[in-house]
Design brief:
The protein has three helices and five strands. With 100 residues, it is α+β, with helices and mostly antiparallel strands.
Amino acid sequence: MKQSSTILNKYKDSIPVYIDFTNINKTVEKSKFVIPNGFTVGQLLTAIRMKMNLNAACALFIFINNRLVPVTTVVSTIYELNKDEDGFLYVCCSEENTFG
């Protein structure tokens, strides 16, 4: 709770997000991110793709509470509805090779 409160106080227009990368074949160095309030899920996916240097044949999906989230959804809306007691929004990121 203290860590998310610190993030929210330091970055007033941002959201603390924990992304679970266990369903991704690449190694990801960090799993906690600070996302701007206006970010959509599509923008979040683009940022993740860039950070991981994924090729175009790999599709990424974001799940929250075991539900696929539409890419047009604003992350702050999801945060208000699904944030955890500790203040973080927990997101599961999964990949699928689209061309076999």
